């Protein structure tokens, strides 16, 4: 590693404002600077003969780490260097200061997802400095536009690897965490490895009416009609799909961690399912686990204070439950709106992702589980689950059927809110543990079948 300390490399990374503002608005200067930055702080990664580095889509990075045993199928680690915007207001410290204070590194990207970019490269740097040569080849793909689709980063890397005939044993990306404090009465943390992710629809609703003078308004305007339509959608939740998916399995695995009577209730979901599903939907975070969510995210109408608006538009972001499809959700939406003056334009849509295996033969899942048990011995439960957000990994389904979304970090409801919110921060200890996790994971992945103990200790 260069002259910077272990956490110094992260503060430097946070300082570079690699913001994805909108569909075509990225900070190219910052992204270029970020590329230079990783070269400077991880010199060994960039000069090792068996590590190949390529820049894809101008600002994404693909590393190919050649293993010594070509019979082992390669895997891939993902992360992204872009971040969502961060207005200064409300932050304890400016979001791009990268300040380290009271044992925390503060700033946009400390949890999503520069922590992973830096931890992956830092773990590799440390391994290479110890003359480590992997048996199993692996790729590291660092996207630069995950927050606005991944079309120029992940999608291009995926196409390139496919053209090269690469098939992967598994992929590990950001996503779920070791969850702490999300379930009332459950004091112990538990790790959820996401084996699928929800689908998504960005739907624009539009109403056109005849413009005119505001002094003699019609009974209804485009704004009024549209507002009523979106309000109906907000007030009519999509059906509760509890029981048809992975959550039931997750809760059954958690059951014995709860005190009486919750342990009995969760062990008998055949009887208490309706009760549990009602409790889950009361909290807005856990609600996202049982249904397709409806978020009104943009509204635009009106041209002048005294003109009846000719057009009103709203964008609604749905996250599609794994038990439903985009088509099913769109049908429900049309029935709820039930107004033929409202036009529907699907801006983008993706069905929920396939479910990756989590059985005893699932190499990627078992390696994650093994490494969680080693690095976080206090975590008793490791269970498969659903990622409620979308990740770059969705662009790689052509390369593998085994995609796991897991950050080796603790997350509580407050830190969950800081992701895309304010006061995003990571403790120095958590970051160091993430490096340790990846350091061990890479070595554990050298196994040909059964996981084996790693060679180097940090
Ligand atoms: C019993 C279990 C209780 C579990 C409680 C649930 C806790 C949730 C924990 C973690 C979820 C954090 C999800 C983070 C990953 C999301 C990454 C992200 O922000 N992706 C963007 C990608 C995107 C998609 C579409 C776009 O047009 C732009 C960007 C996202 O918005 O999903
Ligand atoms: Zn992210
Ligand atoms: Zn994000």
TrEMBL record:
This is N-fatty-acyl-amino acid synthase/hydrolase PM20D1. Pathway: Amino-acid metabolism; Lipid metabolism; fatty acid metabolism. The keyword Hydrolase applies. Pfam families: M20_dimer, Peptidase_M20. GO terms for biological process: adaptive thermogenesis; amide biosynthetic process; amide catabolic process; amino acid metabolic process; lipid metabolic process; proteolysis. The gene is PM20D1. CDD domains: M20_yscS (cd05674). Secreted enzyme that regulates the endogenous N-fatty acyl amino acid (NAAs) tissue and circulating levels by functioning as a bidirectional NAA synthase/hydrolase. It condenses free fatty acids and free amino acids to generate NAAs and bidirectionally catalyzes the reverse hydrolysis reaction. Some of these NAAs stimulate oxidative metabolism via mitochondrial uncoupling, increasing energy expenditure in a UPC1-independent manner. Thereby, this secreted protein may indirectly regulate whole body energy expenditure. Keywords: Hydrolase, Metal-binding, Protease, Zinc. Residues 196-340 form the Peptidase M20 dimerisation domain. Its EC number is 3.5.1.114, 3.5.1.14. One of its GO terms (cellular component) is extracellular region. SUPFAM superfamilies: Bacterial exopeptidase dimerisation domain, Zn-dependent exopeptidases. PANTHER family: N-FATTY-ACYL-AMINO ACID SYNTHASE/HYDROLASE PM20D1 (PTHR45962), N-FATTY-ACYL-AMINO ACID SYNTHASE_HYDROLASE PM20D1 (PTHR45962:SF1). Signal peptide: none annotated. Belongs to the peptidase M20A family. It catalyses: N-(9Z-octadecenoyl)-L-tyrosine + H2O = L-tyrosine + (9Z)-octadecenoate; N-(9Z-octadecenoyl)-L-lysine + H2O = L-lysine + (9Z)-octadecenoate; N-(9Z-octadecenoyl)-L-methionine + H2O = (9Z)-octadecenoate + L-methionine; N-(9Z-octadecenoyl)-L-serine + H2O = L-serine + (9Z)-octadecenoate. GO terms for molecular function: aminoacylase activity; metal ion binding; peptidase activity.
